[in-house]
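For consistency, the fold was encoded as tokens, which produced the following:
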Amino acid sequence: MKGDLFSSEHMVRPTSAPGMTVENAKCVRYTVDGEMLARQGSMVAHRGDLRFERKGQGVGGMIKRAVTGEGLPLMAVRGRGEAWFAHEAQNCFVVELGGGDEFTVNGRNVLCFDASLSYQIRTVKGSGIAGGGLFNSVFTGQGALGLVCEGNPLVIPVTPEQPVYVDTDAVVGWTAHLRTSLHRSQSLGSMLRGGSGEAVQLMLQGEGHVVVRPSEVTPQKTQQH
């Protein structure tokens, strides 16, 4: 089959150095030389000598997932080759963590990440609304974290002088040293009269960044086996 049958914009680029790259707006490519981790069921294509294994969360992780509803159904990808990952045609982007960085993110937005990163489920202080996540996954270490969200993500700087208020259904994640609390923008009387529909937001204070998706529709949870 001749290559010129297809538009060049849809052709896969030549093999890159080991690690994660954004193949296009909807897909991440990972050139594996050892091990990486990905969301179960997110692999859409691969080539080379790769093995895919369901990764258990351990007893502690299973308990946390059962209690909090937050968890990452992961698989380990080992060997040498290339794999492409996507989730429900959502937009993909990559967060690069340095040695001392932390990034807290809703588990539903995680696509894949370097094996050098570790994560644990933590309580989001001051947030008791499901959309904002009472519990999130906090990633630490040095490496790349591939994420997905509906639409192109907005990365908003947070400064000590300017806290940022985000809709609890729209927030994807934030640098973990930011302080979080709930902010009510309407009085009870205004809410009873109809109001604007933006009654409560998650307020982030300090210095860092928050990632927001341009959508307030809560994604339906896919059934996990």
